[in-house]
Design a protein that fits this description.
Length: 316
C-alpha cells in the first residue's frame, strides 16, 4: 500500500546492518543544524560512542553484515568533502551522526573512513538530474528559489574521526516514485582528501538510510514539501527496505522540538563494515524501479562532465 498525499511533499545513503541485538543503532547525541542544532555536550557524546563500541566488542558476533544494495540511478562521483551539504536548499533541518565500525574486529571504530551521502531535495529532485520527473505533481526544480549548484547540492563526504564518527548537516529528504524517503550512502577506506574531494581507496559498502513513516508523512505536510503531491511509498512497500529496522538502515530520529517538527531532526545510526570488502553498488538491484531499473521518466538530466572545484566546498 502507498500513502496518498494530496498537497504533501518532501525535500538521498543506507547504513549497514546491526543484527542480533549486539549493537545499538546510533547511541550518540548530535550537534545541530545552525542554531537549532547547537552542540552542547561533545564530551558526553564521545563517551556514549566509546561505551557503545565497548559494549559491542563484548559480543563475539559483534555485528552481522548485510549485503550492499544498488547505488541507484542518481549517483555522481564528484561529491565535495564538507559537513553542510544543503547549499541553501530549503527543508526541515536534519543532522546526521553516523558511526562507522569494523564488524570483523570487535566493532572497533574505523578512523579515517570516508562516508559519502546523497539524496533528493524537498520536491524529489537530485543534483545533476534536475529535469528528472519525481512523479506525482511537483513544481520544476528551478522554482525553488535557492542559489544551490544544480550539480552538487545535497551531496558530500565526511571523514570519520578517531571514534569512527561523521556528521552531516542537511535537510529531510523528499521522495520520488516509486521509492520511500531515503538517503544513499557509501563507505570508503584507503583514500584521502584532495582538492576538496575524496580520492582513491575503495568502496566497502553501498547502502541506504530510511525514515519512520509517521515522521516522514508529518513532514510532507509542511512547506516546501507540501507542494509535491502524489502517492508516497511507505516502508512496507519499498523495494529496497526489508523491514529489519536499524539493521536495515532505519535511522533513530530525535526531534529538536517535540511540538514543532519544522525545527528539525537529529538522526543516528551505527554502520558496520568490513574494511577488506569492496562493493560499489553499481549494477546491483533495488535503486530505481523494480530490479534496479530507474523509473520510466527518470533520470533524464545530464550529469556534470567535470568534478566541482575545491573553491566551492565548505570546511570539513
Amino acid at each position: 500500500m502507498t500513502g496518498n498525499h494530496k498537497d504533501r511533499t518532501i525535500t538521498r545513503r543506507r547504513a549497514l546492518a546491526v543484527t542480533g541485538g549486539t549493537v545499538a543503532a546510533g547511541g550518540l547525541a548530535v550537534a545541530g543544524y545552525q542554531a537549532a542544532f547547537a552542540d552542547t555536550a561533545t564530551a558526553t557524546t564521545d563517551a556514549v560512542a566509546s561505551t557503545a563500541s565497548a559494549a559491542a566488542s563484548e559480543s563475539s558476533g559483534c555485528m552481522t553484515l548485510m549485503s550492499s544494495v544498488t547505488e541507484g540511478p542518481y549517483y555522481l562521483d564528484n561529491a565535495l568533502v564538507r559537513k553542510d551539504i544543503t547549499e541553501g536548499k530549503s527543508g526541515v533541518p536534519l543532522t546526521l551522526r553516523l558511526t562507522v565500525v569494523d564488524a570483523t574486529d570487535g566493532c572497533t571504530p574505523v578512523s579515517g573512513a570516508a562516508v559519502e551521502i546523497w539524496h533528493c531535495d524537498a520536491w524529489g529532485y537530485y543534483s545533476g538530474y534536475t529535469t528528472a520527473n519525481p512523479g506525482g505533481s511537483a513544481p520544476a526544480e528551478s522554482e525553488d528559489g535557492s542559489t544551490a549548484n544544480d550539480k552538487t547540492y545535497l551531496r558530500g563526504y565526511q571523514i570519520a574521526n578517531a571514534n569512527g564518527v561523521v556528521k552531516f548537516e542537511t535537510i529531510f529528504p523528499g521522495w520520488y516514485t516509486p521509492r520511500t524517503c531515503h538517503i544513499h550512502l557509501k563507505v570508503h577506506t584507503g583514500g584521502q582528501k584532495e582538492d576538496g574531494t575524496y580520492e582513491g581507496g575503495k568502496v566497502n559498502y553501498t547502502g541506504q538510510l530510511f525514515f519512520d513513516d509517521e515522521i516522514a508523512q508529518e513532514i510532507f505536510t509542511l512547506e516546501p514539501y507540501s507542494k509535491h503531491s502524489g502517492s508516497y511509498t511507505t516502508l512496507d512497500n519499498d523495494m529496497v527496505y526489508d523491514g529489519g529496522g536499524a539493521s536495515s538502515g532505519l535511522l533513530t530520529l530525535k526531534a529538536v522540538h517535540k511540538k514543532d517538527s519544522s525545527k528539525g531532526y537529529k538522526g543516528f545510526l551505527t554502520i558496520g563494515v568490513d574494511p577488506d570488502a569492496e562493493n560499489t553498488g553499481a549494477g546491483s538491484g533495488g535503486g530505481g524501479g523494480e530490479g534496479g531499473t530507474p523509473p520510466g521518466d527518470a533520470p533524464t538530466g545530464t550529469p556534470p562532465s567535470t568534478a566541482p572545484s575545491a573553491s566551492s566546498s565548505s570546511s570539513s
